[in-house]
Design a protein that fits this description.
2 strands; 45% helix; alpha+beta; two-stranded antiparallel sheet; elongated
């Protein structure tokens, strides 16, 4: 199973285009100007990775046959 929590913050900045805006926000985030915490929680998703589980199960069965 995978548990994925999502935190979200919207910030307004002045920039000439989307590229510059992203660069400014990335730099500010890296500089810890924006700290996302529980107040910014927007959701949680749970997902099963059946392929990985099936592959592990087959591998374990195969190992058991080799013994």
């Amino acid at each position: 199973m995978e548990i994925k929590e999502t935190l979200c913050m919207t910030v307004e900045i002045g920039a000439k285009d989307a590229e510059q805006a992203e660069a400014i926000v990335r730099a500010a985030y890296k500089n810890e100007d924006y700290i996302l915490d529980a107040e910014h929680f927007t959701g949680v998703d749970f997902s099963t990775h059946e392929k990985e589980m099936n592959a592990r199960s087959k591998e374990q069965k195969h190992r058991g046959q080799e013994r």
